[in-house]
């Protein structure tokens, strides 16, 4: 992409309305613009990152045989009257009336909708278990929308739902999602820590929130130091086998948020205790037959008996993750994207606009990178070198290639790692080889 023809409205000044670094940087890097409180438009570069995150989340859901569907944003109120949540949900729900005076709502979540689909389609125990998900915009009229897209009113969520014949099966589905979440966050360049969460009236141990560590997090967290280096990939993971031993490795360690913190347990940990702030990026939940019983998600068992299915739901805050990743990965100059979600892999800077040799060398490099299938953002604008450096650091692409008159003479380009700041002078071919690897 040539920056001269792109739509990247960067800002030099820090927008005063932004209280936290990710919000500031997203506005300054031209990723989003506010429409009204907690509602945002996504500009090209912001959208590109959002889509990359969405795609990683999608691939990992598909990998555990969870099937993608797409349910509507607008739902009929009657569905929620059946589950009893139409009144319970309160003012966070955006209620709408259509031209025929029918009560509708903009979905804050989709348990009712997916349960209705299941109830109307699946009849036999042979078609269970089933895992379904979608990635769709939600609306919650939050009391305090803030921190940009981190706590928006309209936000993009991946929500999955599991259907099983019994609690044992539900636990298997839960464990699958649990480990899949660890994998997903790692691919996004994040260290997410699973923390036991409230299970509501059902009780038990099958509700976890996934939090990443960040100073601006809304939750107070405390956990065992070991979590910092723990990875799902250190264990033998077979998604078709028994994942309980892997899940136990994580759930046996102490980790808790806010009112769930246990002073005794924390004291016992001594130097192994970490306290920090955290951002919730996911929540998985087993809720038994709460919705299936009310919405008739009943299948016929092997003996002809009725089985009310056991369900769970599994959310990931896709749009919140854009901000969360920035909170976890930035410096004074701007964003530092992990490669997996970076809008472009490399930024190419022409140091001397208008110089024929520089233009030719940059154009050649741009052509070669594009040909090699490397996603490149080429700053070919009529701007001073300093402004180009600042913008490139601000938008945080993992690599930078700088081409100027002096380097051209020596047959080299400057190759910079955005994260470490390390610069190397190498040949154009070497730069391309590095980026291919
Ligand atoms: P929170 O405690 O942050 O309000 P929640 O418990 O209401 O979250 P869930 O209903 O479990 O959240 O939704 C699943 C995920 O969706 C959350 O883990 C979070 O990452 C994301 N999410 C929830 N509310 C918002 C919001 N207002 N803006 C952006 N993302 C959100
Ligand atoms: Mg909430």
Short synopsis of the structure:
The protein is of the alpha+beta class. The chain has 14 helices and 23 strands. Strands 3, 7, 8, 9, 10, 11, 12, 13 and 16 form a nine-stranded mixed β-sheet that branches.
Structure in words:
With 437 residues, this protein is of the alpha+beta class. It is globular, with a radius of gyration of 25 Å. The strands form 6 sheets. Strands 3, 7, 8, 9, 10, 11, 12, 13 and 16 form a 9-stranded mixed beta sheet that branches. It has a 5-stranded mixed beta sheet with strand order 20-19-21-22-23, sandwiched between helices. It has a 3-stranded antiparallel beta sheet with strand order 4-6-5. The structure holds adenosine-5'-triphosphate (ATP) and magnesium ion.
Entry keywords:
9-stranded mixed β-sheet; binds adenosine-5'-triphosphate; 437 residues; 14 helices; globular; 5-stranded mixed β-sheet; 23 strands; binds magnesium ion; alpha+beta
What number is the mean pLDDT? 96
Number of helix segments?
A: 14
N-to-C CA distance: 21 Å
Model regions low in confidence, pLDDT < 50 over at least 5 residues: none
Bound molecules: adenosine-5'-triphosphate, magnesium ion
Q: What structural category characterises the helix and strand content?
A: alpha+beta
Q: Topology of this structure?
A:
Layout: H1 21-28, E1 32-36, E2 39-42, H2 44-63, E3 67-68, E4 74-76, H3 77-83, H4 85-88, E5 94-97, E6 103-106, H5 111-121, E7 130-139, E8 154-164, H6 167-187, E9 192-196, E10 207-213, E11 219-224, H7 244-251, E12 255-257, H8 263-269, E13 273-288, H9 292-295, E14 298-300, E15 306-308, E16 310-317, H10 318-328, E17 330-331, E18 334-335, E19 346-350, H11 356-371, E20 376-379, H12 385-395, E21 399-403, H13 405-410, E22 413-417, E23 423-426, H14 428-436
Parallel strand pairs: 3-7, 19-20, 19-21
Antiparallel strand pairs: 1-2, 4-6, 5-6, 7-8, 8-16, 9-10, 10-13, 11-12, 11-13, 13-16, 14-15, 17-18, 21-22, 22-23
The protein binds adenosine-5'-triphosphate and magnesium ion.
Adenosine-5'-triphosphate binds at residues 109, 140, 142, 151-152, 155, 157, 280-283, 315, 317, 319-320.
């Amino acid at each position: 992409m040539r920056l001269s023809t792109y739509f990247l409205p960067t800002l030099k000044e820090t927008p005063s309305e932004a209280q936290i670094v990710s919000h500031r940087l997203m506005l300054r890097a031209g990723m989003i613009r506010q429409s009204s409180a907690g509602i945002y438009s996504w500009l090209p570069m912001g959208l590109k990152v959002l889509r990359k995150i969405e795609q990683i989340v999608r691939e990992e859901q598909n990998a555990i045989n969870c099937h993608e569907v797409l349910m509507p944003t607008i739902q009929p109120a009657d569905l929620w009257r059946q589950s009893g949540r139409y009144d319970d949900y309160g003012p966070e729900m955006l209620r709408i009336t259509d031209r025929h005076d029918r009560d509708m709502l903009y979905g804050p979540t989709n348990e009712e909708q997916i349960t209705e689909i299941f109830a109307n389609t699946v009849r036999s125990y042979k078609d269970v278990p089933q895992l379904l998900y979608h990635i769709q915009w939600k609306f919650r009229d939050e009391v305090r929308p803030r921190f940009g897209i981190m706590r928006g009113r309209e936000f993009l969520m991946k929500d999955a739902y599991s259907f099983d014949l019994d609690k044992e099966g539900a636990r298997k589905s839960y464990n699958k999602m649990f480990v899949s979440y660890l994998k997903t966050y790692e691919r996004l360049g994040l260290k997410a820590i699973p923390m036991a969460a409230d299970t509501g009236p059902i009780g038990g141990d099958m509700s976890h929130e996934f939090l990443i560590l960040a100073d601006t997090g809304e939750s107070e967290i405390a956990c065992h130091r070991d979590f910092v280096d723990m990875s799902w990939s250190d264990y033998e993971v077979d998604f078709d086998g028994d994942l309980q031993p892997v899940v136990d490795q994580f759930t046996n360690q102490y980790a808790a948020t806010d009112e769930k913190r246990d002073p005794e347990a924390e004291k016992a940990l001594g130097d192994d205790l970490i306290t920090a702030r955290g951002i919730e990026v996911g929540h998985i939940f087993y809720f038994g037959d709460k919705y299936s019983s009310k919405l008739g998600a009943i299948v016929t068992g092997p003996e002809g008996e009725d089985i009310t299915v056991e369900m769970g739901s599994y959310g990931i805050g896709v749009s919140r993750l854009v901000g969360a990743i920035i909170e976890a990965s930035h410096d004074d100059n701007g964003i530092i994207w992990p490669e997996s979600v970076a809008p472009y892999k490399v930024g190419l800077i022409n140091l001397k606009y208008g110089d024929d040799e520089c233009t030719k060398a940059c154009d050649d490099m741009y052509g070669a990178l594009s040909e090699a299938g490397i996603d490149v953002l080429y700053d070919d604008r009529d701007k001073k070198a300093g402004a180009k450096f600042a913008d490139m650091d601000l938008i945080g692409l993992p690599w930078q290639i700088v081409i100027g008159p002096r380097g051209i003479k020596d047959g080299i380009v400057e190759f910079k790692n955005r994260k470490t700041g390390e610069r190397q002078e190498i040949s154009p071919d070497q730069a391309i080889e590095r980026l291919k690897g």
